[in-house]
Design goal:
The chain starts with 12 loop residues before the first strand and ends in an 8-residue tail after the last strand. A six-stranded antiparallel β-barrel has the order 1-2-7-6-3-8. It has a two-stranded antiparallel ribbon with strand order 4-5. β6 (98-109) and β7 form a beta hairpin. 0% of the residues lie in helices and 32% in strands. The protein is mainly β. It has no helices and eight strands. The chain has a domain at 13-35 and 44-66 and 97-123: Elongation Factor Tu (Ef-tu), domain 3.
Length: 139
């Protein structure tokens, strides 16, 4: 029998971006999202070994300002489109607001990575980084 449990997630860092409010963020990263910095906590710095400038990575974020109480949305906020279950969309509005962002590493300064494009707003918690599918060294 399935039983609901609560799990704790500890962010590994934070997004630093010129985007300060949800309304400023494009719906998708390929729609004019700016560069942003990922500030990674020093206690997980060893996990950055192997990431290089030019790499494509997946940034996993916790969309901390998103609503969690809706299960249906109009895709892309377009009310002319029918209500659709959130699991069939990329809407940030969902029970567990996890964001997935495919970005390119532009610069590395210690535990800070400048990446693009990233549509997450300033202060968004980073919960994981992953190499893109098919990258060398993927475990």
């Amino acid at each position: 029998m399935w039983e609901s449990k609560v799990y704790e997630i500890n962010p590994i860092g934070v997004v630093r971006s010129v985007l300060k409010e949800r309304g400023e963020a494009p719906a998708f990263g390929d729609e004019g999202a700016p560069d942003a910095w990922l500030e990674i906590n020093g206690d997980v710095a060893d996990g950055l070994q192997g990431i290089e400038t030019g790499d494509e990575i997946i940034v996993v974020t916790w969309l901390h300002l998103s609503r969690r109480d809706k299960l249906k949305v109009h895709p892309r906020g377009d009310t002319s489109r029918p209500l659709t279950g959130v699991f069939a969309t990329r809407s940030p509005v969902r029970p567990n607001p996890i964001g997935l962002h495919r970005v390119t590493v532009l610069e590395i300064e210690g535990t800070k990575l400048r990446v693009a494009p990233l549509e997450a707003i300033d202060g968004t918690p980073v919960i994981d980084l992953k190499s893109s599918v098919g990258e060398q060294g993927e475990a």
